[in-house]
Amino acid sequence: MRNLIFHSILLVFCSLNAQIVVTGKIIDQKTAEPVVGVVIYSKQNNVAVETGEDGSFSITLEKPDTIKTINSEYKSFRIFVDSSQTIDIPIEEEFTELAEVVMVGEKDDRLESTQMSVNEYTREQIKEIPAIFGEPDVLKVIQLKPGIQINGEGANAIVVRGGGPDQNLVLLDESIVYNPTHLFGFFSVFNSDIVNKVKVYKGDFPSYYGGRLSSVIDVTTKSPCKDSLTGSGGIGLISSRLNLDIPIIKGKTAIFVAARRTYFDLFTNALNKANEKTPDWQYIPNYHFQDFNAKLEHDIGKKDKIFVNGFVSRDKLALQRNNFKFFLNWGNSANTLKWNHIFNSKLLMSNSLVYSDYNYTAGSKFTAFSFEVGAKIQEMGLKSHFDYEHNEKNTFNFGIAAKKYIMELGRLHGGSDSVKVNLSIPATFSDAALYGNWSYKPSARLKFESGLRLNYVNNTNLNFLGLEPRFTVAFRVSEKATLKASYAKVYQNIHLVANSGSTLPIDYWYPSTQKIRPQYSNQVAAGLSKELNKKFFFSIEAFYKKLNRQVDFRNNADLYFNKDIEKDMIIGRGWAYGAEFYLEKKKGKFTGWIGYTLAWSKRQFDGINGGHVFFARNDRRHDFSFVTSYKITKRLSFSSSWVFSSGAITTIPMGKFIFQGMPYDGISYAPDYVSVNNYRIPNYHRLDLGLIYRFYRKWGESDLTFSLYNAYGRRNTYFITFETEKSELPVAALQKLKAVSVSLFSLIPSITYNFKF
Amino acid sequence: MKQQYFYITILALIIFIVSCNSKKEIDLKLPPYKPQYIVECYLTPNEPFRLLLSQSTGIENSIPLNPLVLADVRVFHKNDTILFNDLPIIDTNYYKAYNYVSNSIVEYDTVNPYFLEIKMRNTNDVLRAQTKFLKLPKINKIGMSTINGTDISLNLSIDDVSKGENNYYYFMIIDSLKKYDFEARPRNSALFDDKLITDNKVAIYTSYKYNEGESLLARVYNITKEHYDFLASMDEAQNANGNPFGRPTFLVSNVSGAIGIFTALNFDEKKLVVSVDSL
If we measure between CA atoms, which residue out of A109, A20, A31, A28 comes closest to residue A66? Predict the structure, then answer.
């Protein structure tokens, strides 16, 4: 895989002895957009390469031949080459007779590559899978493959191989996105129109990634079209979005801008106004989110390219009634300035400057008195990365990265005209990493990849150095099967302070200190990838992950605006292990996959459950997904996904008692929880259906997407509560309680109109 | 308090999103629950020693009206031993029930601690706790403000009882003319520490929920850290029920071998009549 990435971003300009080097770009004939994942194949030379993120490729031939493009979505294109050259190849979209496209000699990259424990998704896959409210969602889609668990109704908290939701490195064009969700996790912040590709590493992390224990979710945005003004967008039930690609200097410089906004608040405002005088009207909070993306790309010459990416997201929630006002605002930004330089056909360099932040502010106001609380994190970083291909057997990449973090662990402003309080808990720290990767292919069957990352953390009274070895071996047991094994150690230098297992906007990040040292994990995995025939691919992976220095909080901890929060932190351990099975039908009119994960996730803290090992909240024994896509005609396609997962672990009270309280206090019942994570809620399952009808117009394309979320209306448990039964007893607290399962969404139909020109 | 607004808002939003919000009874099939001893004993100056000793029960069971927990209860203070009788009574002033009482009267003593010992007759389990009286708090000032002439907010200023130490308070505002009953709760009550202290004064603001002519009682307790932790954990534990964003919390008891609180109460209170004229 590393080779392919290398080739895909590399433009080779010099000939290698008598070899014929053909470089160029594959572009969509209609949209002029680069096409990812097109195989360029030479039968005579028995060599194939694949286009990368920007559609570029480089193929080296020993003798002249007709090369041809192969991709199930596009018609094949053939061209004879007898000399080194750079060519752009336009290919035409293929809608009919997909099953008949013959993939002679095409090799599945998953067999070729040493990389394991990785899932990859394209924009098209993301858009095809039916989504809640018809809003295509990157984070929902990635939950459909093995190892990434389905995390309950609506939730976007990503749990990978039993790790915590805070242990995922979410990158948007190399910048970290600290809170990748809108609306308390119901939607992701990634606008599907501008996503080019998403790669999720569940283990076997290349050494150029670091900083989180459980996964890397690497979202890359598309390249703006440099030749003509193009655009895309959609109008949905709850939101609309628009993306424009604007060439600035034809063929050299272009920018895309994209924006998305919900209009939930317009309806709720109108409803609230209409019911202003209705007695007992339950005021509906106003809520909306918006996000904005832009990317400027400029080709300085054949060897240099500059990108500037910007991303901003904002969520606003407000409740206003009479003299009382409550608000909660939160948002991210993630920005990258990147320069790619090609020294020669063997060496290329990439330098990036990143800035990310996350900030929330909550407050209320009673006219005379007001208060505001909040927290923030800002991160500035520099990274220099080099790829070097020494020869066919040895490739290297290496680099250095440094980051500075400025944090506000708590902010509290409040008071009235007479009394004012302005308090803040600031923190700063920095970290750096030096890394290198060596990929070695001693024979056609055997490949090694080894990496080393040196993690350094600097904070008051803390100078921490940690070594992160990574190692992978891949053995091609046959033309169609590869055995792989990997080991990776990772450090995580910041820790999430979260009130509950759910991810909330008021969670904040805490730095590593002398007492709270970086968390780390060791993960081993082994698996088999097998191409069953030209259409089916199968893989199985087993993994074992040990999580060390895990952070949790003492009972009754005061998490917010607590200068001494370290006193409330407790350090423990975790384990996650299991096996993942994956069967994919990758070609033809009917495509899809079946994924199944059998896994365990456990934790142990001296201060929790008497020091005994207990199941983590994200422990799911079984996790199953069945995803299909069927292209009925050129215009019509159908998709579905069915998911099943063991119930989530939660904490419910096992006992109760009467609590009288002090004079004037009312009598109530008090719950006795006995232990944490003591109950598994009922199993979760859901079927989603989608239907896309496409229109081809003179100005471009459009489609109507119908989706049915939770098609058979399964009432999945969102949480369990206890309600009092009717009784003649004088005190409600004495009455018998009954357990009640509360579910969120039943069947939700939706329709979205999408367009592209 | 701020977290409560947050939760209320989120829940209101979720409830709206799921206009078809559906609930169904479920059978939990829970493992057997081991009952815990429950103790509540508030020493109040110049009032008799009283204690409620009960046991918890499984979450889905009924709570027995007459908890029958036989024990020998005593309190040690200085060189005195105060013996309790197992005599169920109801304090009709505040509608509180006790099943162990003594004729002795509680002395306000900020120097010598009180020790509680409860020996179970059937099991020989022994529960122990200790507490002592703290300094009296002082309500410095009560102010009122209004924005429309009808809805009135109160603001109280309390002198922090000691500089440089962590102090904990519990305040409540009660309708002083309203007859008290089992279910009644103070119109406003809050638990707080002196984190937000300014000029040695703690400021408390209420929402605009009072009307002209209302007769109120504002009461502030200076409570121990143990009592604060118990009440804070009680709030968290109760709020976590039915709240997917809550953090289930175990009650922080100061009675060894039991869940409960043994504490000494002192307070300052002021009566007031809400009046726009006084603004």
Answer: A20
Query: Which CA distances in Å does A217 have to A151, A180, B223?
Result: 16, 10, 49
What domains are there in chain B, each with its CATH number?
A: 37-131 (2.60.40), 134-278 (2.60.40.10)
In whole angstroms, what separates CA B122 from the centre of its chain? 30
Q: Please give the C-alpha separations between residue B97 and each of A39, A657, A658, B101, B219, in angstroms, as whole numbers.
A: 81, 14, 11, 10, 22
Q: Which two tokens stand for residue A484?
A: 């792989």
- Over residues A238-295, the pLDDT tens digits come to 889 999 999 999 889 999 999 999 988 888 888 888 887 777 777 788 889 999 999 9
Residue among B18, B183, B186 whose CB faces A732 most closely: B183
Residues A470 and A600 in one domain: yes
- Which is nearest to A190 in space by CA: A156, A144, A214? A156
Q: Which domain holds residue A89?
A: 2-94
Q: Count the alpha carbons within 13 Å of B63 in the hemisphere toward its beta carbon.
A: 26
With tokens 């201060």, the residue in question is A607
What ipTM goes with this model? 0.88
Tell whether A578 and A477 lie within a shared domain.
yes
Using the beta-carbon criterion (under 8 Å), do B248 and A718 form an inter-chain contact?
Answer: no
Q: Cβ contacts (< 8 Å) between B12 and chain A: which residues?
A: 282-285, 319
Asked whether residue A459 falls in the same domain as residue A523, the answer is: yes
Tell me the whole-structure pTM to 2 decimals: 0.83
Other Cβ atoms closer than 10 A to A536: 14
CA angle A484, A490, A495 (to 5 degrees): 140
**A690 domain residue, yes or no:** yes
The Cα B122–Cα B38 span in angstroms is 16
Same domain, A515 and A543: yes
Q: CA of B60: which chain A residue's CA is closest?
A: A737
